[in-house]
Amino acid sequence: GFEPERRGSHPYLGVDFRTLHSRAESAGTIPARRIQRLFSFQRHLLSSRLLRGAPHLNPLHILDEDYCGQAKCMLEKVGSWNFDIFLFDRLTNGNGLVFLTFNLLNQYGLIELFQLDMVKLRRFLVLVQEDYHNQNPYHNAVHAADVTQAMHCYLREPKLAESLTSFDILLGLLAAATHDLDHPGVNQPFLIKTNHYLAALYRNTSVLENHHWRSAVGLLRETELFSNLPAEDSIERQLGSLILATDISRQNEYLSRFRTHLDENDLCLGNASHRHFVLQMALKCADICNPCRPWELSKQWSEKVTEEFFHQGDIEKKHKLEISPLCDSEANTIASVQIGFMTYVVEPLFAEWARFSDTRLSQTMLGHLGLNKASWSAMEALYKSHNNDKQTLTDTQALKQCQN
Ligand SMILES: [Zn+2]
């Protein structure tokens, strides 16, 4: 069997990270989680036809028969910007990340090309999915699957599709799937002020991103997924460079480099280091593309991320720590958090991305971004006017009024 919980970002302040976001009914989840891990993996082992020595079978055969048709149908449109990852995750019984990533690697012909061992690959993907904390409202395996799906959309954009190598695509998809691995559901400043061992280990610099990367490397080595490939250490390094680029506090650094390249029109995608830089930018876009999705999807992500922020704020209050920006539920609303995020982080990045890749997808994303921002602004205005009337209005009520 597996050694349970042999890695992890959990302990801090004597409080177990695993219980941070657990609901009452799932409190004390340690034994349950162990069972779940064993159960889900064994279930896949038993149900997988791939393991009966038929590596060229359609990987979807491993889905439960009941949902097979619907999930399969969805995967036919896996390159669509409207892809509903929440629905896909439900249809795959919470295994969206495994099935999506497996399907994409297969679709790009990467399993065959790099002669990836099916058993090792499945074990790797299941472990990746299991090491995301499904108690986190936002930073969980569904977010990782969503980022992987967005990455796939960007990899198919003409400029990238024409120039990327199969190795670039393999790295891009793996980085997307693992980029938030073992995320504790709190941010770096929180880890620093609570003297978490990860903050000390990574010297308060890109603490989470370093941990996501090293966790991914740990799983690659444990499963020996790339043991047959010659440049195993180079894969690990490049994976790290992609995941570290998702550190939002370094956004300006990447953005100004991107802007300079675009101004001077000197990106040469025949050059491996330029391709790597474009992959970094694509992953950054994929990571924060929620506000560029259609409203029904975008709204759900906004609610989840704010729930996670406010939860951190509640822990900070409880432990009498300074409350982090955006995390105080009394000083912020979903709408105000979203408007700030869109204005200062998302819009500048996607404006440059659209200059680089001037396509229908880029225009679609900017279109949704504008509409979604207008919706949140309308809600915020309504919220403020109600507050002025000394009435309280929840975000949900405001949302309903706006939609009516
Ligand atoms: Zn992320």
TrEMBL record:
One Gene Ontology BP term is: signal transduction
- Annotated residues that bind AMP are located at H139, N140, A141, V142, H143, D180, D287, Q338
Q: Which Pfam families match?
A: PDEase_I
Residues annotated as catalytic: H139
Determine the domain of life of the protein's source: Eukaryota
Residues binding Zn(2+) 2, per UniProt: D180
SMART domains linked:
HDc
Q: What cofactor requirement does the entry state?
A: a divalent metal cation
One annotated GO molecular function is: 3',5'-cyclic-AMP phosphodiesterase activity
Catalytic activity field: 3',5'-cyclic AMP + H2O = AMP + H(+)
Q: Which Gene3D superfamilies match?
A: 3'5'-cyclic nucleotide phosphodiesterase, catalytic domain
Can you tell me where the transmembrane regions are? none
Coiled coil (UniProt feature)? none
Which PANTHER family does the record cross-reference, listed alphabetically? Answer: CYCLIC NUCLEOTIDE PHOSPHODIESTERASE (PTHR11347)
Q: Which family does it belong to?
A: Belongs to the cyclic nucleotide phosphodiesterase family. PDE7 subfamily.
Name of the protein in question: 3',5'-cyclic-AMP phosphodiesterase
Taxonomically, what lineage is the organism? Eukaryota, Metazoa, Chordata, Craniata, Vertebrata
* Gene that produces this protein: LOC107721883
